[in-house]
From TrEMBL:
Its EC number is 2.7.1.30. This is Glycerol kinase. It comes from Sporolactobacillus spathodeae. NCBIfam families: glycerol_kin, PRK00047.1. Homotetramer and homodimer (in equilibrium). The phosphoenolpyruvate-dependent sugar phosphotransferase system (PTS), including enzyme I, and histidine-containing protein (HPr) are required for the phosphorylation, which leads to the activation of the enzyme. Residues 261-449 form the Carbohydrate kinase FGGY C-terminal domain. The lineage of its organism: Bacteria, Bacillati, Bacillota, Bacilli, Bacillales. Residues 4-251 form the Carbohydrate kinase FGGY N-terminal domain.
Length: 497
């Protein structure tokens, strides 16, 4: 057995290859950002071939910089930005359109039409999801409706659909495996999360031929082996797949019912493990599959925030207020407060609990005294306020009052944000020693499948808190600040272009 597990973490903005040892420690990593395309207002697309090329390059980089022989890799786990949709020709392997990213709003009209036909409850009752452009189903329909000749090709069985996990396994296996796992299938709006099958009625409504869809498998099993020419002469088992948010839940070892994690990446996603029970939300949370493991499926409740770290990237790239995302912390700490400024980053609409595809971003409370520092601070604070909206929904749906929140993801490295998060929630926040829990989850799933780790108990023993934050804010200040946020979101939703 090799000494390491390789996790491929294909996020919204970058790909990472992370090589873990048996203690879950990072032996080596390589990362590469890739291009985002914004062809129209609210649309977000990527080039699936560029993602594939970037994956090959980070694998090579991690192995060569770490001087690791590919033979030492016992298995590969894949975790991915979810919902992002690729449709490609099964004969040539060429995508027929850009990958439509989960954040993209180009299917808002399709969702509206389906809602007008009174179909929301049909989708919700089978998939646990809502009719929002976020999910893959309407994105597939959009590609079939808008790319010349696509529908005919799909009906002839010439096209394949995949989320990014499926695309990468297909490429790594030389086109021999067309698979996904339960956690990714659960995000398509086409998969029945209760009877665990592609739902014929939903496929017909959406006009998606079943022949396009991947086989749905557990999250931990050997799906295929790498073709040797993509892996330096080695055939390595690809043995774990999970959507990045479910993978982070697994990497945080939230194995027990009621355990919660929040990941601050491009977006921000809070998931609660609800065990073998699928909990139905009354407050705009999603019911989803956490993972399939040991012959069982575990479910989760999820709150999805569309814009979190990407608001910080916008400060960097759009407004050019900062040179790097971590620099936001320094600016935020230079002022005592945001001085009444609220920024609502509804750049692609709002997710949980509002589900408003047409909302767009806004800033409130500007005065002549507002400085760049206040603006940056208000942007960071918006991540914490959105998280509070989600936690309120989660506590109300689950009946559980949270005492501690496990956090991870790029923006969780921001100490100012984590302290403010703890303050505004009135809950302790714990960041583990490894903030790379998304990749770790996929590594764990792959390692379990090949016997690299024996069981979940062994994994739970590895988790350690790296830094803890405790609420220091006076309750009346907390309430007053949050009241301001609630008013700002409400006002944002009234204004429509
Ligand atoms: N120290 C920081 N403070 C605030 N935001 C940060 C910081 N470091 C990274 N980010 C943000 O986190 C995101 C990257 O996190 P990551 O977990 O890699 O995201 P993804 O998996 O979605 O690509 C970026 O949007 C970036 O702006
Ligand atoms: O890229 P992230 O880490 O923000 O995750 C994206 C989510 O999977 C979208 O559902």
């Amino acid at each position: 057995m090799g000494k390491y597990i390789l996790a491929l973490d294909e996020g919204t903005t970058s790909v990472r290859a992370m090589i873990f040892d048996e203690m879950g420690q990072v032996k080596q990593m390589a990362q590469k950002e890739f291009k985002q395309y914004f062809p129209k207002s609210g649309w977000v697309e990527q080039d699936a071939n560029e993602i594939w090329g970037s994956i090959l390059s980070v694998i090579a980089d991690a192995l060569s910089t770490g001087e690791i022989d590919p033979k030492e890799i016992a298995a590969i786990g894949i975790t991915n930005q979810r919902e992002t949709t690729v449709v490609w020709d099964r004969h040539t392997g060429h995508p027929i359109y850009h990958a439509i990213v989960w954040q993209s709003r180009q299917t808002a009209d399709i969702c509206r039409q389906l809602k007008d036909q009174g179909l929301e409850e049909t989708f919700k009752s089978k998939t646990g999801l809502l009719l929002d452009p976020y999910f893959s189903g309407t994105k597939i329909k959009w590609i079939l409706d808008n790319v010349t000749g696509a529908r005919e090709k799909a009906e002839r069985g010439d096209l394949l659909f995949g989320t990014i996990d499926t695309w990468l396994v297909w490429k790594l296996s030389g086109g021999s495996a067309h698979v996904t796992d339960y956690s990714n299938a659960a995000r398509t709006l086409l998969y029945n999360i209760y009877d665990l099958s592609w739902d014929q009625e939903l496929l017909e409504i959406m006009g998606v031929p079943k022949s396009m869809l991947p086989e749905v498998c557990p999250s931990s099993q050997v799906y295929a082996k790498t073709v040797s020419y993509h892996f330096f002469g080695e055939e390595i088992p690809i043995a774990g797949i999970a959507g990045d948010q479910q993978s982070a839940l697994f990497g945080q070892t939230c194995f027990e019912q009621g355990m919660v994690k929040n990941t601050y990446g491009t977006g921000c996603f809070m998931l609660m493990n609800t065990g073998e029970q699928a909990v139905h939300s009354k407050t705009g949370l999603l019911t989803t599959i956490a993972w399939g493991l040991n012959g069982k499926v575990s479910y989760a409740l999820e709150g999805s925030i569309f814009v979190a770290g990407s608001a910080i990237q916008w400060l960097r790239d759009g407004l050019r207020m900062i040179k790097s995302s971590p620099e936001s912390e320094e600016y935020a700490k230079r002022v005592e407060s945001a001085d009444g400024v609220y920024l609502v980053p509804a750049f692609v609409g709002l997710g949980t609990p509002y589900w408003d595809a047409d909302a767009r971003g806004a800033v409130f409370g500007l005065t002549r005294g507002t400085t760049k520092e206040h603006f940056i601070r208000a942007t960071l604070e918006s991540l914490a306020y959105q998280t509070k909206d989600v936690l309120n929904a989660m506590e109300s749906d689950s009946g559980i009052t949270l005492k501690k929140l496990r956090v991870d993801g790029g923006a969780s490295m921001n100490d100012f944000l984590m302290q403010f998060q703890s303050d505004i929630l009135g809950v302790s926040v714990g960041r583990p020693t490894s903030s790379e829990t998304t990749a770790l989850g996929a590594a764990y799933l792959a390692g379990l499948a090949v016997g690299f780790w024996s069981d979940q108990k062994q994994l739970a023993e590895i988790w350690q808190v790296g830094k803890a934050y405790h609420a220091e804010m006076a309750p009346e200040v907390r309430s007053q600040l949050y009241r301001g946020w609630t008013k700002a979101v409400g006002a944002t939703r009234v204004f429509k272009n």
